[in-house]
Design goal:
This protein is an alpha+beta fold. Strands 2-3-4-5-6-1-7 form a 7-stranded mixed beta sheet. Helix 1 packs across helix 3. The longest helix has 15 residues. It starts with a strand and ends in a 7-residue tail after the last strand. 31% of the residues are buried.
Length: 190
């Protein structure tokens, strides 16, 4: 086995100083608030969003549907789970017959006034439309609603669009981390 180090940023934001921009999604997209009956949908969107990316190598559970199901069960079971900051995006642009969930976000309170965004995932075919920003805004507004003032998250540095979005929203990098990732050796003769 080979090891590779993946650069990640720990980012934080103070919600007391945050001016929320207007939350808008493109036509045909809706924000769906948390409900326990949506757990499987969150897991499926998480899996489909991360399975082919670097984060599935960094966190192997993201590369397997069962891993994402287990992760969602663990997140919603945490004492600090923040339902008000947990959302899905549903696409209904081609009518209800073709409706699908295409974005997900979750948050967990880590201390009285602090929380951590767990995962922001948008299906590849729906990226570049501002859905990640919409999910982040809905989540941050939900955290404000329940008195959270400090928000943290971690992001893989290679995910430049996410890093840029988080900076635009007011997050600042507070630490650079390196996560060791085990890679399978290339077959002999390749």
């Amino acid at each position: 086995m080979n090891f590779h180090y993946v650069k990640r940023y720990r980012m934080e934001m103070n919600l007391l100083r945050w001016q929320a921009p207007v939350l808008r999604l493109p036509h045909g997209y809706l924000l769906v608030p948390w409900h326990h009956s949506l757990t499987q949908h969150h897991a499926e969107v998480k899996y489909r969003s991360f399975r082919d990316g670097i984060d599935a190598q960094v966190f192997p559970c993201l590369g397997e549907l069962e891993g994402c199901e287990r992760l969602m069960s663990e997140i919603k079971a945490k004492d600090g789970f923040v339902p008000e900051a947990t959302w899905l995006v549903e696409y209904i642009g081609d009518g209800l017959r073709y409706a699908e969930y295409c974005g997900t976000i979750q948050a967990v309170r880590t201390q009285k006034n602090r929380s951590s965004i767990q995962n922001v995932g948008v299906l590849a075919e729906h990226r570049g439309l501002g859905l990640g920003k919409g999910l982040m805004l809905a989540s941050l507004l939900g955290m404000q609603q329940v008195g959270i003032t400090q928000v943290g998250l971690e992001v893989t540095a290679e995910n430049r669009s996410a890093v840029q979005l988080y900076h635009q929203l007011g997050f600042r990098s507070v630490r650079t981390l390196y996560k060791s990732v085990e890679l399978a050796c290339a077959p002999a003769g390749s």
